[in-house]
Amino acid sequence: MIKKNVICSFCGCLCDDLSITIEDGKITGVDNGCALANAKFLGKERLLKPVIREGDSIKETEYNTAIEKAADILKDAERPLFFGWSGTQGEAQAKGVHLCMLLGGVIDNTSSLCHGPSILAIQEVGHPGCTLGQVKNRADLIIYWGCNPLEGHPRHMSRYTTYADGFFLKNAFRERKLIVVDVRKTMSSDVADEFIQIEPGGDYAVLSALRAIVRGEEKIIPESVSGVSKSQLKRVADMCKEARFGALFFGLGLTMSKNKYKNIRNAVELTDELSRHTKFTISAMRGHWNVYGANEVFTWMTGYPYAIDFARGIPFYNPGETTAAEILYRKECDALMVVSSDPAAHMPKKCVEHMADIPVIQIDPHKNCTSFFTDVQIPVAITGIEASGTAYRMDGVPLRTKKIIDADFLTDTEVISRIYERILEAKADV
Amino acid sequence: MSELLIKNAYVIDPINDIKGEIMDIAIKDRMIADSVSDSAEVIDAKGCLTLPGGVDSHTHICGTKVNFGRYMSPEDMRAGRGRAQPHMYPVSGYSVPTVYANTYRYSALGYTTVLEGAMAPLEARHTHEEFFCTSLQDTMANTLFDGNWSVMEAVSDKDLKRVAAVVGWTLAAVKGFAVKVTNPGGTEMWGWGKDVGCIHQKIDHFGITPAEIIEYLIRANELLNLPHSVHLHCNNLGKPGNYKCTLETMQRTPNLNDKRQTLYMTHVQFHSYGGTKWGDFCSKADDIAWMLNRKPQIAIDMGQVMFGKTTTMTADGPMEFNLYRLYNNKWSNHDVELETGSGIIPVFYSRKNLVNSVMWSIGLELALMTKNPWQCMLATDNPNGAPFVKYPEIIALLMSSRYRDEEFAKIHPDTGKRVHLPSLDREMDFYEIAVMTRAAQAKALGITDIGKGHLGEGAYGDVAIYPIKNNDIDPSRDYSKIIEGFSLTDYTIKSGRVISRHGNCLLNGNNRTIWVKPKISEEYNMSNDPEFVKKFERYYSVSMENYPVEEEYMNKRNICIETETGL
After folding, report:
1. Is B51-505 assigned to CATH 3.20.20.140?
2. pLDDT attached to residue B509
3. Second-level CATH architecture of A116-284
4. The pLDDT of residue B507
């Protein structure tokens, strides 16, 4: 059997045109997918049963026991931290926020380790963006800044930008210009019409120089800015102004390098400036398939996209203080629940050390680095394969991922709901 | 079966022609009934003002741009924080509050039904996800068609039935309620960083005009027999001299429906500006009201501006960019492929600012100069003119010329030369306020037949009891008591259950989404139309199969209005 128009729950592109071949209830083939999608849909390794740590050993157990154990840990915690959420369905994210509200904990998603700085910049200067189809149909200039889409988001260029059909472009591939900005050559820079190689940490200065040129102040620009020649900067500024529709995409090369959120602020303000000359938009290359959904769900429920502390009964937001890494670093939380994420692989050593000292609950279909620290891990159905659920694409378009095969696992939403109910019952008993 | 008896209520129910009588209201199993048994729960209204649950026919509370307004505005979130209460979640936000804040605050004002003013079809799931959490109001979504390529192509082909078929397919697919047109053609032009001027400027590539889009959509709307009329945000919002564009749009509107208006024009305050630039900016509310008084086929909402901080958000992307260039504050924009656009910026309406003072006056003038209150709804285009929590102050301004005079004395001193407000001495009564805040809104939305906006037998048991006693209060003098009274109900009852008592929300759940499904023959089913299918295959970034909003996004109580159509 072949299922068509399947949505891929791997990266923020949420490609929705995959064809999946299923034989005897198992996935045997993936068409239209990139290498990342193939690995996801054809992956075999996973945790089959809930596990609990007893002393030095890990023991398999049943859902009920694992859920009870998780509820006990959370119930006893004074300052629980709930982290992850970028790889699960929106319904589970919402349930997680309710659980955190109930316990007066802190909830954060993986944005704090990726596009958190982009959000801070947007909160200062806004975000002139659009849906990906708007770019596909109109843009004759594409800029990738601090990202390598051919490897990180392999179908971004073929579905939405350089290689995609466009309504207003007769021969989209030839008519579109591509600019890649990075500190090193990449697969993406190899196909660019213009490659701007910046010295590491020089993005802010280059963005400022471009803004100055667009504003007609090129005389103040030195001959070279962070390794980029003035003549190239002028050429690029002209390309931007002459485009009918320009679209700038940026990745972690801009958010997580020197100057962090100020880089994004500068890129947004360059877009604002260019909007006075032509049509220009800017968009973040969101990584995990539903990290933007985590931002959306948290925002409509609490008012903030990430890093929310309910300890005082009201939603309190202060990234840098209420973000997960900082709370672990300060050894503040006394329990950690990780949903569909791997903080042990991505956070500083001192954070991971604290994870080893406190009880950790993990809800994830797979074992990962964080599993070494968990006291209870509960495997769940993989959303987009074994369960359906809502996801938000990197541009904010909401889609419903599909269940394409049956599996004997609870969903993230079911597991979190059951933990929630247990805690509610325990609270009522007191 | 639950039963409720509200005794001793001073009832105004305009749709049933009840203009203030002491009576009892019986509610049986969610609906208004003739009588209930002796075992019914009893609420003693003690002679207080009792109205059908409030209806807001134009507000922005759920969906992509609303949530982006929250996302980009932590300062607004901090301005409206509240702790969790029994049965209530903690809340954030003042002008763009969280879903829970919106639903609690609306219920405290007595509102039980709200219409989200703008939903992009491609992003409809988002709106419905937030509707799900808006647990204390029934919700509907205006669905955007201002820049819909398939509509514009059909208009270009002068094919009315095809326009209707596209609209009907889309409404059913995204579970929308009504046809919204925001700056028709302008949002498509904004895809190139441009805008249209007034209604006769041609739209690039499609070669048609805003006037044609409006005309065809109005006729398609009637062909689909939709409960609500076309809901129009006119071209040229916020520009000095735009009243001419508004007047011409009104002048061209045919009269095609004898149950309700043929065109609903929203936030008309923003479209009633005279002058040629900000320097000679002035009110033309008199001309707009003059036209409205001669056109029963048109209904409007005020789009009242109130002083203070708020957030503007609209599908009108180019307008928000113009506003950004005025304010130089933060600006967000979000174009939606093949359909529409949107923009957001925070604003501060200052009473020291002449333009803002004139805007404040215009909204009130429109309401006071419109003879028939059934044609003018009380609304702020929440949160564009002001957050909806300001409604009680607007009610007081309409009921008291003394209050207006006192406020007028505090605004920019040059305002008087540019507006008509000081010469208007009309003072509205409770009946007119009841019309403008629920009855007219329900009638305009076409939902009285399904039992909304009134207290007749068989209607939903949606009731608001305000701590206001008609005989003890002179609204003209005691306007502060009017503000207080309309700010917090004693009881808000929805579907026969108390959902808010003195602002303490007593119940979670109970909400319904109301949407439409026009019955369309196979011949006009766009799912089989090669050109329409091609739009998804080649130009949308989402496949046709993944576009429609699934049943999972509706709760069990949703109300689907199926309409008989001419297709």
Report:
1. yes
2. 63
3. 3-Layer(aba) Sandwich (3.40)
4. 72
